[in-house]
Amino acid sequence: MEFETLVQTRKSVRGFKKQPVSRATVEEIIEVAKRAPSSMNTQPWHVHVLTGEPLEEVRRRNMEEMVAGAKAKRDIVSHGEYQGVHRGRQVDIAKKLFGAMGIARDDKPMRQDWVLRGFRQFDAPVSLVLAYDRILDPGAVCHFDLGALCYGIVLAAWDRGLGSVINGQGIMRSDIVREVANIPEDQVIMTCVAMGYPDDSFAANAVRSDREANGDFVRYVGFAD
Known about the structure:
Elements: H1 3-9, H2 23-33, E1 45-51, H3 52-67, H4 84-101, H5 108-119, E2 126-133, H6 141-159, E3 163-166, H7 174-181, E4 187-196, H8 214-217
Antiparallel strand pairs: 1-2, 2-4, 3-4
Helix pairs in contact: 2-6, 3-7
């Protein structure tokens, strides 16, 4: 599939089939994605691929801790709650998703169930936990590199018929992820990619987020036209 078509058609998938994803398929995806840009070829990334019982334990314990009121315990520094225009965009996509799923504004149980799906990594059959070398902190360059790898994974997966959602909720308790997956302390857990074959009957999978017009965030400097 051509790159432009990949980018235009790819969307976040929040409902997955129970069909398993083979290790060979994931290896193929990572083989492609690791060609992502990396600052001076430092390649600071690590990928921990979870499925089966280990993944079930991570999502069960992550969900139980968060439902019980435990504080998030992520390795990376959080900006806190979104405000202003960023909050507005967050609310807009939530409205679209709840509308597609038929979740009313005052339906607290169903809204809570949606949040729990995020903590469970949307019940995807595979989770790729992305981490980077702790020795590179503090600094945004390695974060940029990991983002490039992450997007490469998502596009390579989509090209092979797999959907994914980049999901920080799924690792809100990074200590649990580290324990279950035996991730070394010298790696910082940044995010995870929940992955599987899309369930086309799941209404939220048809939702596409809005994007601002180029004129709202792009400046051209020095062009004659």
